[in-house]
Amino acid sequence: MTKLMTPYINRRHLLVALGAGAFAAGFETFNPVTAFAKAPKLGVFVPGWYRFNIGDIEATIISDGLLDLGSATDQFPAAPADEITQIMKNEFLPVQPMMLEQNCLVINTGDRLVLFDSGMGADQLFGTQAGRILKNLAAAGINPADIDDIVLTHAHCDHCWGMVADDNSLNFPNAQVHISQADFDFWTDETKLQADGFIPKFVAGARKNLLPYRDRMYFVKDGKEVLAGVTALHTPGHTVGHTSYVISSGNNTFLNVGDVVHHYALLFQNPQWEFAFDSDPKVAAQTRLKLFDMASTDQMPMIGYHFPFPGLGHIRREGTAFDYVAIPMQHS
Questions:
Q1: pLDDT at 236 over 90
Q2: Chain-centre distance of CA 244, in angstroms?
Q3: Which of 13, 43, 106, 318 has its CA 20 to 30 A from that of 203?
Q4: What average pLDDT does the structure give for the chain?
């Protein structure tokens, strides 16, 4: 006769069994689909500003939004298209549209509130995702009327067209303007309104945005201090008078490169490539190499106007080329 064995149930097994039973019983009456309302989509994004310090200087990156420059192969017409395609693929980026950020910098030195470049304004020449500087200044707690100085790297549309509103009022009514005389003279030259290509539109926009500030304009000089802690660095090629700026406080220094370099993935690997909107592409490439050499040798962090937001990073040598390393964002 076979003896029936009673299964051994320890305390753990009992608790698991009881819990499973309770869950099964509860599941019959609890329906999460009917008990909870579906959360609505918020449709709100993080405001486009980021604050950090340069020594004793409080710095804030203000986004003016994105520019749609069409195809990357069109913007670098002399570069091998297959190489552009492979680099963009490696970065998980499309060849088209090639989107570029606009990282406007504001610094508070304690004495002056200074804006570097002003974005596109309301013009939609490069799409509908630009022209957000005023909204993002407000989100960052900065009143445009409190801006003491606007320092321009150059007078292209995405750098100076945010200075005057559609009704011709000044967006920064109390600001002085600092720019190279070469760039001011070139891009406000009325005779160029009859030129070919994109130049007439760029000149018309520069005249609209720069001339109303003419009575409060100062011309920067290469190697000279523009304001306390801000030194001009002549970096021609993209435009005749393109200027980068070295911003220093204590032992901290950042290089605001402007448009010496546009795309972080393409031009650090290939600094010799020529960009379609460069006034003198060969000079621009030479300038880029010199600036990359200086920044990498001195280990000087960069602020890139068109780099991925917020545009702060280091540059290091990689063989005969260079590599861009983003600085991690700091959180409160």
A1: yes
A2: 15
A3: 106
A4: 90
